[in-house]
Every structure is written in C-alpha cells, then in structure tokens.
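Quick one: structure for this chain?
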Amino acid sequence: MNILFLCTQNSAKSIMAESILKENNIYTENLNSQSIDDVLNKGIKIDILITLCSSAKKEGCPTLSENIKSVHWDIDDPIEYSDFEKIFIDLSYPIKEFTSSY
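Got it. Here's what it folds into:
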C-alpha cells in the first residue's frame, strides 16, 4: 500500500510521519521526501492521500485520481511554531490510530 503524506510547505511533517511509522514498526524502506510532481512523474500508484495542513486540503491535488482515498489531518507547521516535539506528538496520534486499522 502506498500512502502519500502531503503538505504544501513540506517543512518537516512528512519526514516526521516517516519517523513515527518506523517507531511503530511500519515498513518504510525506500521512503524519501519529494514533490508531488516527482511522485506523479515516476508513475507511483497512490492508494491513500493524507494531507497534513489546511492549505493542502484547500489546494487539493487535481492530477490525482478520484479513486484515491483521501484523509485530512490539520497539523500545525513546526517551522511556524518552533515546537517540533509538540508537532511530532500531535502527528503521532492520528498515524498510530490510522495504522492500527490496516
């Protein structure tokens, strides 16, 4: 299953998400932070799109298929708040809940 964590600022949340997945023994081999264009150009099949900020939800991803399950988590930008630990904790809750259902 391919999950795309999307944030328009890409300041750190997708990298934090990967770290949280690793902490919970979720396979993350070959993961890396990249632009949505890079993902689409490589032809990677996306099963679930998780947007991590309100602007990503508003902008949407018009090039992605309507068949992709979309989930939105409104997580603060760690750069904006200078509190990476709080954002890491805030992000860990929905990820743990989400992964427990798969």
